[in-house]
Amino acid sequence: MKTLYLILFLFFSINSFAQSIKVKESNSDFSTAQNVNALVVEIPYVSQDFIEGKIKKLFKGFGKHKVSKKEHVAMMVELKDFGKMPFNAYALSSLSNDQLVSVRFGFDLGGAYLNSKDHPEKYKVIEKIIQDFASKAVKSWVEGIVRDENKRLNNLEKEQKDLVKRKEHLEKEIKDFERKIEENKSSIKENLESQSAKKNEIETQKKQVELVEKQLKSLR
Questions:
Q1: Which domain holds residue 87?
Q2: Cα 205 to chain center, whole Å?
């Protein structure tokens, strides 16, 4: 599946993909409020677990972070573009019907949840943060795929080199065996010639022994 995601992603450049990310507004429920305004973004290609890790990192960047019943919470967040008024942030991820990871963000400004109508300037700031979050998440996901595929390629190339080395080793063994066989054949030939010569020496010696024994008997 990762390879399929990568192939699909290659149809898009990082810049064009970032431009295609849309943050939408929708009513949603959070632990502290129901049916309030939320900023929703759908993120393709990635897994939900992967996005959960990215939300955690984002909210830790906001400040104090906790997770309760799969809801990410950052309390008393302060952003330079928001002035000195802190806010609370909430996020929940889920899988849409077409298997896209959907993330719902809620921002409690203190009595009201962030929305484009009542807080246009602050909305633009948060919208940009969410767009950057989504595009960087996909880029990081694809980079991970590329690393995995390169690692697999490196492993395959290493296995290929090992196979080549094994073949070379076996071929060397065959040559060594062939050389040894030729040496043994030559040694066998020399051995047979030595056996033949030794038999002749034995026969000569037997005759010498017989001759000496005859001489010994004649002296008795």
A1: 2-145
A2: 81
In a domain, 197, yes or no: no
CATH of the domain at 107: 3.30.530
Total domains in the fold of the chain: 1
pLDDT in tens, the chain (220 residues): 555 555 455 545 455 555 677 899 999 999 999 999 999 999 887 899 999 999 999 999 998 899 999 999 999 999 888 877 899 999 999 988 777 899 999 999 988 999 999 999 999 999 999 999 998 998 888 888 888 888 999 999 999 999 999 999 999 999 999 999 999 999 999 999 999 999 999 999 999 998 888 888 888 6
Q: Is residue 198 part of a domain?
A: no
Long-range CB pairs of 139-143, under 8 A, 24+ apart, other chains included: 139/14, 140/54, 141/5, 141/45, 141/46, 141/47, 141/50, 142/5, 142/6, 142/9, 142/45
Q: What is the CB-side half-sphere exposure of residue 4 using CA atoms within 13 A?
A: 4
